[in-house]
């Protein structure tokens, strides 16, 4: 910003000077407005220092100039093979990587934490805010270049992220226009064993068995797509004052990895944010 937006006349009264100063402030805000629709970091996270982004690894991880590697917690971007044999590149993986590079390479970002701060590979698990305040995870979700991907020990900002994901999906932005990322029906869930998927349907039955709760999307539990909530998960639901059996009769969207158990497909729910009541 060069020079001053306005000059105060020495003959002005104090009230006039205040009015002119406010006019200057409003003009400055008009010249440098916050970009419409750009997401800002939610409240409640703890700042953990800033650094310049040196390079982008893929759509949700990067390296900093201070030597740290960051896994951008809370999202999952389309995956690149990254040297894994027989691993097919997901649709839009290159787009997500390029978008992240455009957003942050050479820019200063601040790390923010709301849960476990480091994974088993030594990567920092952080939400990122750019030097101008842009929330990077939120922007990728807004563009439809990532899905919400939270964990029991990293649930901060989940509600904000889910809202951005819903808006992108409604507008069919990015990956939400590609069948690879389509929301699955309960009847077809078994075709996606071993994959992280979103499934929508009605929970028609459920029961507690020993230290777990099972929620079924069909009348026959032996063949129906089923959610399993173990004792650790149930503790988190109780802490949030959510009774899992209250979902019986509700239409929900769930997310997680699908596995097979004999004739049925099962998704192990690990924390409350993985079930959205629709």
What is the strand and helix layout of this fold?
Layout: H1 14-31, E1 46-58, E2 61-64, E3 69-72, E4 74-76, H2 93-104, E5 108-113, E6 124-130, H3 136-142, E7 147-149, H4 158-170, E8 196-202, E9 205-209, E10 212-216, E11 226-229, H5 231-239, E12 251-261, E13 264-269, E14 275-277
Parallel strand pairs: 3-6, 11-13
Antiparallel strand pairs: 1-2, 1-5, 2-3, 4-7, 5-6, 8-12, 9-10, 10-11, 12-13, 12-14
Structure overview:
- This protein is α+β, with helices and mostly antiparallel strands and 278 residues long.
- It contains five helices and 14 strands.
- Helix 3 (136-142) packs parallel to helix 4.
- Mean pLDDT is 89; it is low at 1-34.
Concise synopsis of the structure shown:
The protein contains 5 helices and 14 strands.
Order of helices and strands: HEEEEHEEHEHEEEEHEEE
Strand percentage: 25-35%
What's the CATH class label of the largest domain?
Mainly Beta
Distance between the termini: 48 Å
**Structural class, from helix and strand content?**
alpha+beta
Proportion in helices? 10-25%
Return the domain count. 2
Task: Outline the low-pLDDT stretches.
Answer: 1-34
Radius of gyration: 23 Å
Major sheet size, sense and barrel closure: 7 strands, mixed
């Amino acid at each position: 910003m060069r020079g001053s937006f306005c000059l105060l006349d020495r003959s002005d009264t104090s009230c006039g000077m205040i009015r002119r100063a406010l006019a200057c402030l409003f003009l400055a805000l008009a010249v440098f407005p916050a970009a419409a629709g750009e997401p800002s970091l939610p409240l409640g996270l703890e700042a953990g220092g800033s650094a310049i982004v040196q390079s982008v690894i893929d759509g949700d991880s990067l390296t900093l100039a201070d030597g740290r590697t960051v896994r951008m917690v809370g999202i999952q971007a389309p995956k690149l093979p990254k040297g894994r044999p027989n691993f097919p590149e997901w649709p839009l993986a290159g787009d997500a990587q390029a978008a992240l590079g455009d957003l942050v390479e050479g820019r200063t970002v601040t790390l923010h934490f709301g849960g476990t701060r480091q994974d088993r590979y030594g990567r920092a698990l952080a939400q990122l805010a750019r030097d101008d305040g842009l929330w990077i995870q939120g922007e990728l979700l807004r563009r439809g270049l990532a899905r919400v991907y939270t964990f029991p020990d990293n649930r901060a900002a989940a509600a904000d992220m889910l809202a951005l994901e819903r808006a992108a999906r409604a507008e069919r932005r990015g990956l939400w226009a590609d069948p690879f990322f389509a929301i699955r029906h309960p009847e077809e869930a078994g075709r996606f064993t071993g994959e992280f998927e979103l499934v929508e349907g009605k929970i028609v039955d459920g029961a507690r068995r020993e230290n777990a709760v099972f929620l079924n999307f069909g009348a026959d539990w032996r063949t129906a797509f089923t959610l399993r909530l173990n004792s650790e998960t149930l503790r988190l639901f109780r802490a949030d004052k959510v009774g899992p059996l209250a979902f019986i009769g509700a239409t929900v969207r769930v997310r997680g990895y699908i596995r097979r158990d004999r004739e049925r497909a099962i998704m192990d729910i690990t924390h409350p944010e993985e079930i959205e009541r629709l």
